[in-house]
Amino acid sequence: MQDLDKLQSEALAAVAAASTLDQLDAARVAALGKKGSITGLMKSLGGMGPDERRAAGAALNAARDRIEGALAAAKAGLETKALDERLSRERLDVTLPSRPEAMGRIHPISQVMDEMAAIFAQMGFDVAEGPDIEDDFHNFNALNIPPEHPARQMHDTFYFGEKADGGRHLLRTHTSPVQIRTMLANKPPIRIIAPGRTYRCDSDMTHTPMFHQIEGLVIDEVTHMGHLKGCLLEFVRAFFEVDDVPVRFRPSFFPFTEPSAEVDIGCSREGGELKIGPGAGWLEIGGSGMVHPNVLRNCGIDPDRYQGFAFGMGVERMAMLKYGIPDLRTFFDSDLRWLKHYGFVPLDVPTLAGGLTR
Ligand code: 2U9
Fold it and tell me: Where is the Aminoacyl-transfer RNA synthetases class-II family profile domain positioned along the sequence (predicted)?
C-alpha cells in the first residue's frame, strides 16, 4: 500500500498527458482496468486484517474516485476540442452560391416565356393557365370554329377516344381554351396572357408535334384596335430591346377574331445576319384581332356591351428570332452542349428593371 501515492500520481500524470481519446483510454486501463495498477492494490485488500483493510480500502476508493474524476474531466475536454476542430474544419457558408459553378441552364423556351411574362406583367396582364387535355367545346366550338373547319381535321388534332356523351378529349391545338375558361369564370374587365404547350399532329423541318404559344386577351367596354397595336408595339420594343421596331398589321382571317390581322415587325439583313429594326424586310411574329362577338356570347359576355382584343405568338419562333437559333428541332433534342450554348444562367431572372437579358 506504500505504492498508492506513487501509483496515483503516475495515473493522474498519464491522464493529464493524454492528448487523444485513445491515449486517455489507455491511461484508464493502466490504472483501473482488470490488470490495472490500482485494481492490483484492490486485490491485495483480501489478505489484510480488518483495521488495515478499512484504512487501505478508504484510501484506495479515494484514489480511484480522484482518477475517475480526472478521466471524466479530461474526456470532456478532449471531446470538446475534437468537436471544435471538426466544426471549424467542416464549416459551411450556406449563403454562398453552389460551387464550383452553377451547372444547370434555363432552356431558351422557359427564358423567353419568362421574359414575355415580365413585359406583359408590367402592362398589367395576369398569367392564366389551363389543362393540356381539352375538349371540343373549349378548344373549338366556343372559339367559333365550326365542326367542318380545317383545324378540326384529324390530321391537325391529337384526339383521345370518344367520351360516354359522344364528345372527345383532345390535346389543345392552341392556348385559346385558357381564355375561354377565364371568360366563363370571370366578369370583364379581363386582361390575361396564356403561355403554354400546344399540340398539332404535324412534324417536319418547321413543325414539331408539341410547341409553345403565348396568347393575350383584353376584354372591357372601351378597348379597340388602336390599343391592340399600341400593346404589341410596346411588347416588341421591350422584347427585342430595340427602341424603333416598326410594326405592321396585315389583314387576315381567324374564326375567333373580327377584324383580324397578322403582325409583322421590321428587319434588315446585314451580311447575312438578321437585325430587328427599321429596314427593307418584314417578319411575321403572330396574329391578332378584335374578339369575335360569337366568342364573347359563347362565354356569357354581352357583345353589345363588351369588346376587346386577342393576339397569339409562337414562343419557339420568338426565341429563334431573338437569340439567332437556326433550327426549330434542336429545341427538343435534349442536347446538353446545345443547352450550354443557348441556355441561360438560372440566377439571371428576367426583369424589366434589371434588363431582360444582361
Ligand atoms: C379567344 C379569342 C381570340 C388568339 C389569336 C392568333 C390570332 C394567331 C398564331 C400565332 C402563331 C398561332 O402559334 S401560332 O401559329 N395565333 O394568329 N391567335 S388571334 O385569339 C383568341 C384567343 C382566345 C377567346
Answer: 119-346
Considering the entire predicted model, what is its pTM? Answer: 0.73
CA distance 135 to 358: 41
Whether ligand 1 lies within 6 angstroms of the CB of 308 is answered as: no
Confirm or reject: Cβ of 257 under 6 Å from ligand 1.
yes
Q: Which residue has the cell 482496468?
A: 33
Q: Domain limits of the chain? A: 4-89, 108-342
- The CATH superfamily assigned to 108-342 is Bira Bifunctional Protein; Domain 2 (3.30.930.10)
User: So what's the pLDDT on residue 67?
Assistant: 94
Question: 209 CA to middle of ligand 1, Å?
Answer: 18
What sign for the dihedral angle of Cα 157, 162, 166, 168?
negative
Mean predicted lDDT score pLDDT of the chain: 92
Lowest mean pLDDT among 44-53, 232-241, 290-299: 44-53
Question: Residue 44's pLDDT is what?
Answer: 87
pLDDT of residue 249: 97
Q: Where are the beta strands (DSSP E) in the chain?
A: 126-127, 133-135, 159-162, 168-171, 190-199, 210-220, 247-254, 257-270, 273-276, 281-291, 307-314
CB distance 121 to 127 below 8 Å? yes
Q: Is 119 in the pocket of ligand 1 (CB under 6 A)?
A: no
| Mean pLDDT along residues 206-222 | 97
> Euclidean distance between the first and final Cα of the chain, in Å?
85
> Is residue 310 within 6 Å of ligand 1 at its C-beta?
yes
* Ligand 1 mean position, distance from CA 311 (Å): 5
Ligand 1 midpoint to CA 286 (Å)? 8
